[in-house]
Each structure stands twice: as C-alpha cells, then as structure tokens.
Design a protein that fits this description.
Two copies of one chain form a homodimer. Chain A is mainly α and about 325 residues long. Chain A has helices spanning about 10-15, 20-35, 40-55, 60-65, 70-95, 110, 115-135, 140-160, 170-195, 200-225, 225-230, 235-240, 245-255, 255-260, 265-280, 280-300, 310-325, and strands at about 100, 105. Chain A is globular and about 55 Å long. The interface of A and B includes residues 92, 121, 136, 139 and 148 of A.
C-alpha cells in the first residue's frame, strides 16, 4: 500500500494539513502494508483485506497529530501499532459477531473460518506490541496495553449484556467508553508520549469525547443504514443481541418495542424493528448527544495549549466523526 | 491462590531448590490469582479455571530460575506475564479446537461459549503486556511480543496444514518451534533480561530444546492417553486434523495408516488409529527424539556459566518434561 491509497474520507484533513502530516501518514500506510505482507501470501491477503476494511485511519492520524511534527520514529511506530491493534479487534469482533462482511468486503472469519480469524487477530495484536517494543517505547506499551485490556473488557461486557434489553444508559455508555472511546484517547496519549507537548490531558479528553460520539453514531448507522454505505445489513446489532442507545431510548417511547424479544429475530424482523426505532425520536436524540460530545471536544481544544493549525485539523477530525455515513 | 496450590509435579523442583525459588513462585501464584480476580466474579471464575488448568507453571519457573535469586520485581512480572500469555493461548486454542475439557476441567469455550473465550483470551494477552509495561520493562516486552507473534504463526501454520497427512517432519518441527519451543526459550531470556548473568544464549538453547521435547511428548500423549491422566480423549489431534510426528512416522511403517483420511474420523475411529499408531515403532522413535533433546539440553547447561544448583534444578525441569503423564 502507498500513500495514494489513503481512504477518501481522510483526504479533507490531509489537504488542509501542512505537508508533514500526509507525508508521515504515507509512511504509516507503507509500514502497515509491509507488515501485512510479512508473513506469506495467505496471511498477507487476510491482513490486507482487514487493513482496507479498517476504514479511515482515524486512530493513527490522531497519533500523528498529537505528536505534531515531532515524535519522529516513535510516533510512526505508535501510529502503526494502534492501527494494528484496531485491526486485531476488528478481526476478533467479526468472529464474535459471525459477521460476513465489513465495509462491503468479506471478513477474515468469512473468508478463512473462525480458527484462522482467531489466529490472525492474535498475530496482529502481538505485532502491535512488537512494533512498540522494537522502538524501545516502554511508556507507549503501558498505554496501549491498558487500552487493549479496556477493549477486551468492553467486548466481554457486550457479550454479558447480550439480549438484555433492561440495561441502563449508564451501563451502555461505560461499555462504549471501554470498547471505543478508550482507544481514541489512547491515540492522543501515544502521540504526546512520542513528542511531548502541553495539554496531554486535554487532548486525551478530546479523544475520549470523539470516540464516544463515534460509537453513538455507529449505533445510529446500524439502525438507519443504508447498507450500501455502511457495508453491512441494517439491524446487525439487534441480531447479535447488542442493545444500544437507539433501542434503549426507543423502548421508552414505543411500548411495542418494549415487548420485543431479541432472541427471536430474523433479518426481516430486525429491519422492521429498525424502522420502528427510526419512527421514534430516538435517533435524533442519540445524534444530538453525539453532536454535543463533538462540541465539548472542540471546546476542549480551544485552550491555548493548541496551535491554530492543530485546532483546525482536530476540529475537522471531530466533525468527520459525525458526518460519516460509512 | 497461594503458594500451597502450586501444582504437584513442580513440588520436586521446589523441594530441591533453595528457599528463594518456592518463595518467589508463591509471589507469582498470588499475583496470578489477584489478576484472575481483578475483573469481577464471572471473569474471575473463567480466569481461575484457566489458571488451574494451565498445569505445571514450567514457564514462570524457568523465568525465575533464569533470573536466579536476582531479578527482583522485574523477574516476578516477567514470570507472571509469561503465564498470562500461556493462559491466553490455551483459551484461544480451545476455541480453535472446540475442546470441551483441558486437564479434566471444562474449558472457557465450553463453559461460556466461543464469544467469551475469544474475549477472555484477548484480555489475558493484553494483561500480559500490561504486566511487563507497568514495570517499565521495554526489553522484556520486545522479547514476549516476539514470542507471542511466533505462537500465533505456529497456530496458523497448524490450521493451514490441518488434515494434510503429507506434511514433512521438517514442517512439523518448525511448527512445534513456533508454537511451543519459542515460549520456553523466551522464559529463559526473560529471566536473564531481568537479572543479567552469563550464558544467556546457552540458556535460551536449553529452553528451546526442552520446549521441543515437551511438544513431542505431548503429541505422544495424545495417542497413548490415558485420558484420566491427560485430561482429554485420545486422538484429539487426529480429530482436529493436526498431523503430528507419531502419525508422520507411523504412516511410513503401516500402509493402512497411510490410507487414512482424517476428515472422516469419529471418536471411535480416532482411537482405533491411535492403537494402530501405537502398534508401530513410531511412539518409541518420537520418545527417543524427545529424550535426545533433553540430553542435549542437559549438555548445554554443563557449561561453566551455570552453578551446581542451577544445573541440578534445570536438569530436574528437563527430566520433568519427559517424565510427565499429564
């Protein structure tokens, strides 16, 4: 992979940034491509497919931005490692969900079976830590392993709560923090660890806010689709028994939804329930919450710790989270 | 967990060692027990079951022995981390194999399902790196992540080669090195990293030799059982399509075995094939190879880099590998 294959949604940020950011992101892309191909042709195909399905590279871009134009090799390694960890979780999540496609491409579990998908995920996860450790980055390993523990706990919480429509908003938000927001926070921390710079805690809060907003919108997109943009069928969460905020809110607004038993759903019925959720005010409420989070995030980086360019680019990233359709 | 719950096969080494070794191993056991209980009761049960099913603690003991009575907290952390990684691979292997029991106890995948088992394995793997990183041990992270990559590659090789009875001894041995020997080698390196000391490369070779012998014997035990000692049914490897050295050799000695199609087996037929393999000279040949490896390992530690006590204890560990029945 080369810099030219950076996914399109990121292009706007890259266009606005000084030359160093796209140049460094191209290095990260090349490094990810090299690693994907380092273990033979079959693994290469699986890793490459995961890499391409991984999307917008938000996490490595946040690492590089948090490191500003400093950070050198340490920041490159951290950006590479966080994307490897993200890829590992995608591969394992798809095992858990039995997902056939991700962003319109067949998942590793669909291509090669559960056994290989578990192994490929383990390889990517191990490689993430190797990537940091080979650069002698002890503090970064502590940060990423802590985020990786949180991710696993988030996934496990999601499994424990599966099919339980009585879970509270608080519990849902806690799970999203573990499963998603923590890694966005980590991206910010990793960049600052590589390069120093003021405002680490502010930037970490920024990451957490946009990560949470990202997950909220993701959960809206599962209800709204459209599948040709999201790359997966509507109602996938419902079929997996994953109770998200749109359903939690909609159940309060529509007594018929309150009676739904998630274990009994098929694809058609799941889409019907999506339509019913969409007919309530729930999706707007969740979108509003996500937008409020994005506004809080932008407020955080208004502090004098951040340069005008940083503020501009980080705001674009934040806006990108709520504007996305896939 | 306390020191008193150290599994019996290790007792002989502990009895022979100076007081520091059992004392430090008890600290590792306590630490593992703490970590197992750190994430709530359900995860605690699963982690505890895995911890108890994990067996003889050969890897952490090797770490502590390689660190001698030096190494302090770094060695404790490395010993804890390597057992966490080992536990993670057991949990994920059981997902791959769909194994119902391990050492006579229900596996996480059997207790709690595939989804949770993937998550529990990810959690243990992440926690292993967190354990090292929290101690600021960059070199140890590099070592363990490299071993963890090898383990994943070994598992993936095993999957790629599944049901392929034409695989060569060389390919089988390469897989065993990745899957098993590398982590024994790593245990030795981790201990020396924590405490320094001469003979690191010799000790690493010792670890590799006994690790390989361990795997060879493991593959013999899958054929011979008995299930009440190994904690699993005979012929499990055959049913998984895992072609091991006993079968590779026996196929050359018995034309009827050469014709066996592993995909068609059921439990009864797998046991019949085990009996046929046992009727050839294959098992003795594999056992001889394992013993030769153990002798090479003992030869390596005859060097003057090792004290008399080290030599005695390491030899006991090496002998323990070939004497085990479970």
């Amino acid at each position: 992979m080369t810099g030219s294959s950076v996914p399109p949604p990121v292009t706007a940020v890259m266009d606005a940034a000084s030359a160093w950011l796209p140049a460094r992101m191209a290095v990260v892309e090349d490094r990810l491509g090299e690693l994907a191909g380092a273990y033979g042709p079959r693994l290469g195909e699986e890793a490459e497919a995961t890499l391409r399905a991984g999307g917008k590279r938000l996490r490595p871009i946040l690492v590089l931005m948090a490191a500003r134009d400093g950070g050198g090799e340490r920041a490159i390694r951290a950006a590479t490692a966080i994307e490897l960890l993200h890829m590992a979780t995608l591969v394992h999540d798809d095992v858990l969900d039995g997902a056939p496609v991700r962003r319109g491409r067949p998942t590793v579990v669909a291509r090669s079976g559960r056994e290989r998908a578990v192994g490929v995920g383990d390889l990517l996860l191990s490689r993430a830590f190797a990537e940091l450790a080979d650069g002698g980055a002890g503090a970064e390993v502590a940060e990423l392993s802590s985020a990786s523990v949180a991710l696993a706990l988030g996934e496990l919480a999601q499994r424990s709560d599966a099919y339980d429509t009585s879970i509270t908003e608080e519990r849902y938000l806690k799970r999203c923090t573990l499963k998603t927001a923590r890694l966005f926070e980590s991206a910010c921390r990793l960049g600052r660890l590589a390069a120093g710079g003021p405002g680490t805690e502010n930037l970490a809060s920024f990451g957490r806010e946009i990560g949470l907003a990202f997950q909220l919108l993701d959960d809206v997109l599962d209800v709204t689709g459209p599948p040709e943009r999201t790359g997966k069928a509507r109602g996938t969460d419902l079929l997996d028994g994953t109770v998200t905020l749109p359903l939690i809110i909609a159940r309060r607004l529509d007594p018929e939804l309150e009676a739904v038993e998630l274990r009994d759903l098929d694809q058609d019925r799941a889409e019907e329930i999506c339509d019913r959720i969409a007919a309530t005010a729930a999706l707007d409420q969740v979108r509003d919450r996500a937008r409020e989070g994005i506004e809080r995030a932008k407020g955080i980086i208004a502090s004098e710790d951040f340069s005008d360019e940083e503020r501009q680019l980080l705001s674009m990233i934040a806006d990108g989270v709520v504007e996305r359709y896939s």
